[in-house]
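Progress against Task 2.4 (sequence-to-structure conversion) is shown through the following example record, which the project officer requested during the mid-term review.
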Amino acid sequence: MKKNEIQKIWLGQISFENGLEIQNNEVLKRIKGEICDQVLLLEHEPVYTIGRTQDQSSLPEDRTNLPHPLFITNRGGKATYHGPGQLVGYPILDLKNYKKDLHLYLRSIEQSIIKTCIQYDVQASTKEGLTGVWCNDRKIASIGVGVRKWVSMHGFAINVNGDLSPFNEITPCGIKNAEMTNMEAEIGSSVNFKEFSDSVFENLIGELTHLSKN
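Structure tokens generated for the chain above:
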């Protein structure tokens, strides 16, 4: 593998705890220069997560009634849900190679998701002042990242297929009355999950390559 090549790693369906452990291990290796940049692609077993924020309003007052476990983690952002049918991507990147600009990095992730949606004839876009990707007023992808010594972790979650009802137990990303959607609902037909994940990866590589050259 070339020094500057970004590796794609498919992890399948794993628990959030296992995903976090793998991320932490890979981040340490990347900081030490033992591995190249990589993107971990996976699905999570059902789980709610929230970033380290004092604002807990995106969670219900009684968290004991949540149907799935809740984890507080070191990404940005408020509460969200992960589960089967949702493509999760964790880029482990040395952001010193990408202008050390978190804003541009977030925009690159958004644009890669938008380009993939458009390839599937789903008209997606961003909303001013909000992070993530939308289909009109329906949210299809959430983004929340963490950084350690300018190496990224956490990343994005795109609803491809699967059950969206667990989002009803929280205020997704703290946005009141936000309606969640997925690719299959927008298209009206089934989506090959693996092919979709490949398209997301290729578009992300394109955005990151463009960012690294600016």
